[in-house]
Amino acid sequence: MARNNATNGSSFSVIGDGIVITGNIDATVDLHLDGEVIGDIKCLSLVQGPSSKIQGAIVADRASLSGSVEGSIEAGDLVISSSARIGGDVSYENVTIEQGAHVDGSFKHKSSRSAKPAQTQAKAQTQAQAKPAADMTKDSLSLELSPDGRAA
User: Fold this and answer.
1) pLDDT in tens, 94-150
2) Contacts with 9 (C-beta within 8 Å, 6 or more apart), sequence order
3) Of 23, 30, 76, 129, most Cβ neighbours within 10 A?
4) Any residues with CB less than 8 A from the CB of 88 and at least 6 apart, and which?
């Protein structure tokens, strides 16, 4: 069932309780899920009801999860409610986890996946400068190369 939100013109679809979808969902609208999906879900915004089940990966700008998820989650703004049961790794920009939620997997902030080389080089130089000269003979030294192949 698709509905149009009159206030901002966006639409959303509802997958009701008792409906089982086998296959991937790729939606350009918001999605409210009370049923079961066996497959990956990609949408703008996902709201998962407490009795809902997802067996597959989730990719969404915003996700509010209250049911069962077996698979990875990649979301900008993520809310994991107290009734949620998550089995999979989570990548996020902003996350809220309510007390009582269960998550079996690792959490990774999206910015940590794309560290800029300039920031990494500056951090390494700062760390090297912070070490006393006497300790540097005991540690292994790292050598960073500039784009033209010279030692930086």
Assistant:
1) 999 999 999 999 999 988 755 444 444 444 444 444 444 434 334 433 444 455 544
2) none
3) 30
4) 57, 69, 70, 71, 72, 73, 104, 105
Contact 58, 76 (CB under 8 A): no
Q: Which of 34, 58, 61, 33 is nearest to 45 (CA)?
A: 61
- Strands 68-70, 30-33: parallel, antiparallel or unpaired by DSSP? unpaired
Residue 25, token pair as written in the block: 């969902």
Tell which residue, 72, 49, 73, 77, has the closest CA to residue 62. Answer: 77
Q: Report the largest interatomic distance among the alpha carbons of the chain, rounded to a whole angstrom.
A: 70
What whole-number distance in Å separates Cα of residue 95 and Cα of residue 25?
Answer: 23
**pTM of this prediction?**
0.69
- 39 in helix, strand or coil? coil
Task: Give the span between the Cα atoms of 86 and 115, in whole angstroms.
Answer: 27
Angle at 87 between CA 86 and CA 93, to 5 degrees: 60
Q: What's the rounded Cα separation, in Å, for the pair 81 and 134?
A: 52
Q: Distance between CA 10 and CA 29 in Å, rounded?
A: 7
> For strand 107-109 and strand 85-87, is the pairing parallel, antiparallel, or unpaired?
unpaired
